[in-house]
Design goal:
This protein is an alpha/beta fold. The protein has a six-stranded mixed β-sheet, with helices on both faces.
């Protein structure tokens, strides 16, 4: 059994802007949504047998992290044409028969981390595949059993590949991000510490909490705050049994959705995959 966990918000951004290259800037109302559904359906079509999968989305952009750091990412700057597809994506996925986790207090990344944690505890699960290139999710990788997949670049990263790329093992990724910062999430890291220095310190001393007091000095408290921002939550009660993630085909509502999105081929492919 392989469990596929997909970052729906990332995929929506990717397909929304990817489509613009072919539409001369004229946005289709459901263009990004159709792209995400096609990506999910491709995963289903590539499976031999039952498919187990879930999609995490940011129902809203802000989360519990925003009050912790004033510069943390918000919804400011997201184009209206893109933001208007957030909730339709969740509804269309549900109509397609896919398990969806729309996150409010937590983020989609937290949902992926929680789902990976829950699925990996099931002995019947051979592998958990987290579909996103987001470096935050590298902290969830465990050996070859929980891996990260960058579908666009066709890259699969297990624990060895994470260490090769970042210079530290997966559990130390939050510490690494805390030290070097994450521009996408809106926190700057510790001044004067680059990726190479950060990896050297972490491999020498372990997590930030174990650093000698003179290493970070007055910046220690700030580094621990950034680590809190970078650490994904794994306690979201998304499901009790992995079996609930098994895709059983589209719901009766999916036909209307594909008509609304002007994507009849999507419905045909989905019906065929279900058979």
């Amino acid at each position: 059994m392989i469990v596929h966990l997909i970052d729906g918000t990332y995929e929506l951004f990717r397909h929304f802007y990817g489509l613009r290259r072919f539409t001369k800037g004229k946005d289709r109302p459901y263009g990004g949504v159709v792209g995400v559904l096609q990506t999910v359906l491709q995963i289903i079509e590539n499976e031999n047998g039952d498919t187990y999968l879930g999609v995490a989305t940011d129902h809203v952009i802000e989360s519990f992290r925003n009050p912790l750091w004033p510069g943390y990412k918000t919804g400011v700057g997201i184009e209206r044409a893109l933001f208007s597809q957030f909730h339709p994506l969740e509804e269309a996925l549900a109509a397609m028969g896919v398990v969806v986790w729309p996150m409010i207090e937590l983020e989609a990344d937290d949902a992926l981390a929680s789902a990976a944690h829950l699925a990996s505890k099931d002995k019947k699960v051979e592998r958990v595949a987290i579909w996103t290139p987001d470096k935050d999710l590298a902290q969830c990788v465990r050996g070859t059993r929980v891996v990260q997949i960058d579908g666009r670049r066709k890259i699969v990263r297990d624990a060895a590949a994470v260490r090769e790329k970042f210079g530290v093992d997966p559990p130390l990724i939050p510490d690494l991000l805390a030290l070097v910062g994450d521009a996408a999430d809106g926190y700057p890291g510790i001044p004067g510490i680059g990726a190479r220095t950060a990896a050297t310190l972490l491999n020498r001393y372990g997590p930030i909490e174990s650093f000698p007091s003179n290493v970070l000095g007055e910046q220690r408290k700030l580094a621990l705050l950034f680590k809190k921002l970078a650490t994904l939550r794994t306690e979201a009660p998304l499901f009790k049994k992995v079996e609930t993630l098994r895709w059983r085909g589209p719901t009766p509502a999916f036909a209307a959705w594909t008509e609304r999105m002007e994507a009849p081929r999507l419905f045909e492919r989905c019906e065929k995959a279900a058979r």
